[in-house]
Amino acid sequence: MANAADKTAVITENLRDMGLDDESTEKCLRMIGNGQLRELERFLKNYRNTLLDSVHKYNDRIDCLDYFTYTLKKNGGI
User: Fold this and answer.
1) pLDDT tens digit string along 12-35?
2) Residue 78: enclosing H or E segment and its boundaries?
3) Rounded to two decimals, what is the model's pTM?
4) Per the count of CB atoms within 10 A, which of 5, 23, 43, 73 is most buried?
């Protein structure tokens, strides 16, 4: 865990916890350092949408899996 007194370390840890790679983390840190907060907000919003798309994709797969296993049980197997 980063030292709470080191703002950059705390921010870096948060960005990595979000799943950002090193390049994206550095990009965010540069935007923060340059005061480009609107750009940062836009970048993070796009990243959030990407994560949400992944959630929806995997949720659809889980639904298909659940339906398939339900159908197998209902029909006594294949």
Assistant:
1) 999 999 999 999 999 999 999 999
2) none
3) 0.76
4) 43
Is residue 70 helix, strand or coil?
Answer: helix
Torsion of CA 62, 64, 67, 70, to 10 degrees: -60
All structural domains of the chain with their residue ranges = 7-74
Report the candidate in 41, 16, 45, 17 with the shortest Cα–Cα distance to residue 31. 41
Interacting residues of 12 by C-beta distance below 8 A, sequence separation 6+? 2, 25, 29
Return the percent helix, strand and coil in the chain, to nearest 5.
80, 0, 20
Torsion of CA 54, 59, 62, 68, to 10 degrees: -120
pLDDT at 55: 96
- Yes or no: say if 28 and 15 are a contact pair by the CB < 8 Å rule: yes
